[in-house]
Write a structure and sequence with these properties.
The protein is of the alpha/beta class and 250 residues long. The chain has two domains: 3-81 and 234-249, Nucleotidyltransferase, domain 5; 88-228, ATPase, nucleotide binding domain (Nucleotidyltransferase, domain 5). Helices cover 37% and strands 22% of the residues. The protein contains seven helices and ten strands. The protein has helices spanning 36-50, 74-85, 124-134, 158-170, 175-194, 214-222, 235-246; strands at 3-8, 12-18, 24-31, 55-60, 70-71, 91-95, 100-106, 109-115, 201-205, 225-227. It has a five-stranded mixed β-sheet, with helices on one face. A five-stranded mixed β-sheet has the order 8-7-6-9-10. A hairpin with a 4-residue loop joins strand 6 (91-95) and strand 7 (100-106). Helix 2 (74-85) packs across helix 7, helix 3 (124-134) runs parallel beside helix 4 (158-170) and helix 3 (124-134) runs antiparallel to helix 5 (175-194). The protein is globular. The N and C termini lie close together (7 Å).
Amino acid sequence: MHCIGIDIGSTYTKYCIMDANGIIEELYSEKTPVRQKEYFMQKIQDLRTHYPDAQVISCGYGKRNVSALKNINELTALACGMQYLSPGMDIALDIGGQDTKVIIQNQGALKEFFLNDKCAAGCGMFLINALNLLKMGFKDIELQNGMEPEFMLSSVCAVFAQSEMVELLAQDYHPQVIIRAVVWQILNQAKTLLTKVECDGILLTGGMTKIAGIKSYAERVFGKKVVIPQNAAYLSAIGCAVKYRQCDLL
């Protein structure tokens, strides 16, 4: 019997399809829809045409909009996903679309967590808005092997920072120069959370892990070893599927 883990994030929805032996068969993502209940009702029906025996477990902002066997807290899913992908790592920093969090896990169980203040400048949505303003995509970002940006954004507020970016464009700064400052700003905001835990290294997860060179860039900002396992952006969806198997619901 298959398990399908679904993480409904504020920006993207991630899917993990896992077989009865705990092997991941497929991972993919799509833009989170607007009319979620209607969309996911059809989506689950489509999935079950390919995996008729599948059971579904969900997490994330829209988890209650999925007709699933069970829904769980995203923090629980992250802890399970960490143990599956990187059993040697106990602490993760997750930079999501709307919030940033540090979690501590032990053998796949959530021990403790810390959330950032409600500030868009420390989240993925700030990066997405900046990329839209600069007419860039994730694949266009060049982080230059962890080198500090040529300048730092002066504002820690996403609204004022966006105005600052408009001014920088007017001053003919290259978009690559600006976006490096934006990524640095997001990581620097997240660094505040890491002061709440003692560690030499962290696992980094979230959509930003897809940016080429983000590992060395993050290590420069945090002053710590950063581990980014393969498929780190799907950690919560993977954790959902793992949690289903842990619950012995098969």
